[in-house]
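Lab notebook, bench 4. We co-purified these components, and the gel suggests they stay together. Before we commit to crystallization screens, I want a quick structural picture of the whole thing.
Request: model the full complex, all chains together.
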Amino acid sequence: MDLIRATNEGLYCPVGDFYIDPWRPVANAIITHAHADHAHWGSRQYYSSAKCAPLLQLRLGEDLPLQTYLPSEKFPMGKTWVSFHPAGHILGSSQVRIEYGSHVWVASGDYKRTPDPSCDPFEVVPCDTFISEATFALPVYQWDRGEVTAKKILEWWQQDQERPSLLFCYALGKAQRILAELARLTDRTIYIHGALEAITNIYRHAGVKMLPTASIFDHDKGYSFKGDLILAPPSAHRSPWMKRFKEPQTAFASGWMLVRGTRRRKGYEKGFALSDHADWNELNQTIQETQAQTIFLTHGRTDVLQRYLTEQGKTVRLFQTEYDAHEEAS
Amino acid sequence: MKDFVKLFDEIDSTTSTNEKVEALKDYFKHATPTDSMWTLLLLTGRLSKRTITSRSLSRMFLTQTHYPEWLLEECWDHVGDTAETLSLLAHSLNLCRETSSQTDTSLTAWMEEKIPNLARIKDEEKQSQSLINLWKKLTAQEIFILNKLITGAFRVGVSEKLVIRALSEVYGVPTDQIAHRLSGNLDTGEQAFERVVSQEAVAANFSQPYPFCLAHPWNERSEKNFDPKEWCIEWKYDGIRAQVIRRESHTWIWSRGEEDITETFPELTEIFTHLPEGTVIDGEILVFRNQRISSFQALQKRLGRKKVSEQILKDYPAGFMAYDCLEFNSRDIRQETLKERRKKLEKTVTKIHDSKVLLSPTIDVDTLEELNELRMKARERDAEGLMIKWWAGVYSVGRKTGNWWKYKVDPLTLDAVLLYAQSGTGRRSNLYTDYTFALWNEKKELIPFAKAYSGLDQSEIDELDAWIRRHTKEKFGPVRSVQAEHVFEIGFEGIGSSARHKSGIAVRFPRILRWRKDKKAEDADTLQSAQELLRAVNREE
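Here is the predicted assembly.
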């Protein structure tokens, strides 16, 4: 039997009467993580992991009706038992395990396996049915370890001390991961765009060890930012905000930057392939390790992964969702 | 090769020309002459010879890894480049190093030994094994460069001009001198490089053409400076730009692509043996028939042939329209004014006395309005527009602004329906940017008539890409057929009849002018209207 099915509102569990990451307002919304395409506004009651809560409240409001749970803590939803398990995607990101009688389903939201000092590592949860993303489900996507990429970022930044270095990255998750990865290599203060400040504070409050940060407004107008590293969201690229920096060198950190054509099309000088999603080998490894008989794929290159897994003898079905697979979420 | 990989990386990760030149200078300062020569040949696209094709490189990869072929195709489709796809897959399959090894093989050793050795292996199994063994000693980025070198498809965002500038600054040789030494046939090796950068005046290979002077499109700014007395107006013909060299009892004809086309046009070569020694003239090769100039399609019948049959010579007789003189009495006169050079050209051409070699007529114009009217009449004169040249200007190298302008008549256009889309390559990989357009036939079927790649801006490309993904009817490999819905105005330079195309017509330089969102598919043009256009343009046929 199908514990979960795709509806117009989102992934719905009829026996538990709840939705997972619904994109329209519903009664009960279980949230895997706080990225905008997974955490939508307007539902009556929200449920999340404890570490996800401050990020959800920042995005959806302080007075959000929200119940939180510790990792692996089982709680009843209708006729089911539900628990959160770390997904390794961003701070507080969780897989949702649903148990009904002898059936176990796991909805993983977005996840990765590459070690990340800014969030808890992915936990393999054995299940009958595994719901997976497929954002980077092409074999060309293979991530380097975070410290390898961090070294490249440091090198890029250090080799030009005559100009400001502007590194663009998504505000929630990627920026904090960079701050945490770099903390192992340097102790310099990093400047951050206003859109990153509140989120970075939440990470710091959660005990994530990161480089010290400062606002670009901590300096007078005349300060040149020569030799400084500044983190900013992609929306700030080529915006009036950028005029403050004279002839900066620019780079973008995203999994998509692995492909040269994408790198050049985006108009950044340099690209660093750093992703908070699973790469091809991680997707396949995870699907094997869960021992699931049936796999549902939600978003991304579901066509490729479906064909590949089917050729390996797995049962693969697709869920139509509105999760964003084109860009990594902001 | 590490220095070369670093150079590629530096050029690839900046948009600033100064930084590119700095990277090039840094490279040339430290590289050996043989490596420098290879780099020069690679960066200026002078190595068209492929030792191994992309297809056989993919085949080797599949033989060795037993990878599903469809999966490789999906990857290629997304990345848009074989060399890069395979380097990323090498990374994914752990067939490479994470960090660069201590030892380094020089670019010269790769180009002259390792790659030719790999190409020589006949046994497919052994060959693919050797390829993977080479990969395993390199990082993914180094594998990408190696694959590029192997397949000979080397392109990086640097123009020949920048390479010349870097060499000029490192070796203290003027840029136009290097440009001249680079035109014509180039060799590999230390001596060849010495010849390029030598500070002594080198006895230039006497077969070699001068770098061609190129024209800029006429614009409003150039209109402001227009003084009819100072400008030479000529018709702009749609032929093959060529330089004719007569030195030491030899004759050569070079195309603008710096290809030796002497043997392609034997009847012209024969006439040019009557040029005086030490003469170089610049002009356009055309097909002259019945006192008229035929369309480019007719000239195309003459191209790419080393042996030319009697029939072809009879059907498509070539002629030459001369418009400049670069060498006179064995003296380089490019620094003289056009007025001076024109006098010497007239002296030279009148000595030939052959109706196949004509002097490009100059036209008197008094006002801008007259210039415009004249341009409108270009097609009646078998021309595609006007050339506007400054009488006092020298013959400059490349596309220097100011001396030569081209002023073309408006392009021919048809409204066509988008029928197929294919993802692009390079910066347009994983976006559907290569389009096939169709016109209606009498049975109300859409027949493909042109492919076009450019003309949309990035937001339009993104919009159309998203639409294509949602409205795909069928997929054939990388190609998608889409619902007949969107109409585009397609501009082109020439139109001719063609037996090879289902539509019966072939167009030259098609490009998208506008996305006609105001039109429905039914409103697009028909093959019949294309035929009418064809007849109107090629009245002689």
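Chain B has a mean pLDDT of 88. Worth comparing against the SEC data before the next meeting. The two ends of chain B are 56 Å apart (CA to CA).
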